[in-house]
């Protein structure tokens, strides 16, 4: 696993560490090294969970666009309903739903 320069895992909440384990396994399965592109860093929309350590983004640019949905679905299946996995054009975003849904 790599962490993009300027990104830190410090401040990432415990439920998100499980995400790292599952994502790393899936990325490796598809022949790529997992790259964390955002956690608590950066500028996000006001409702974002990133600043609180409950959201994380992963690089997808090295995968064919047609595989993004498959990879996200596999990650969602591994993580279960407590998490939300969202495919964006430049990355896969994962957030901890229990913070939102209680």
What do you see in this structure?
The protein is of the alpha+beta class and 102 residues long. It has a single domain (2-101), classed as 2-Layer Sandwich (Muramoyl-pentapeptide Carboxypeptidase, domain 2). It is 32% helix and 22% strand. Strand 4 (83-87) and strand 5 (91-96) form a beta hairpin. Helix 1 (14-29) crosses helix 2 (68-79). The longest helix is centred in the first third of the chain and has 16 residues, at 14-29. The radius of gyration is 13 Å and the shape is globular. The protein starts with a strand and ends with a helix.
Structure described in brief:
This protein is of the alpha+beta class.
What are the secondary-structure elements, in order, as H or E? Answer: EHEEHEEH
Q: Tell me the number of strands.
A: 5
CATH class: Alpha Beta
Helix/strand/pairing class, anyone? alpha+beta
> What is the total number of structural domains?
1
Please give a handful of descriptors for the protein shown.
102 residues, alpha+beta, Muramoyl-pentapeptide Carboxypeptidase, domain 2, five-stranded mixed β-sheet
Summarize the helices and strands and which ones pair or pack.
Elements (H helix, E strand, L loop, with lengths): L1 E2 L10 H16 L5 E4 L16 E5 L8 H12 L3 E5 L3 E6 H5 L1
Parallel strand pairs: 1-2
Antiparallel strand pairs: 2-3, 3-5, 4-5
Helix pairs in contact: 1-2
């Amino acid at each position: 696993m790599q962490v993009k320069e300027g990104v830190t895992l410090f401040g990432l909440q415990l439920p998100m560490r499980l995400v790292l384990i599952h994502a790393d396994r899936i990325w490796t399965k598809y022949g790529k090294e997992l790259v964390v592109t955002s956690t608590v860093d950066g500028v996000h929309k006001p409702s974002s969970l990133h600043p609180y350590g409950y959201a994380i983004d992963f690089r997808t640019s090295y995968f064919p666009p047609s595989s993004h949905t498959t990879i996200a679905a596999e990650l969602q299946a591994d993580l279960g309903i407590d998490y939300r996995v969202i495919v964006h054009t430049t990355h896969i975003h994962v957030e901890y739903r229990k913070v939102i849904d209680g």
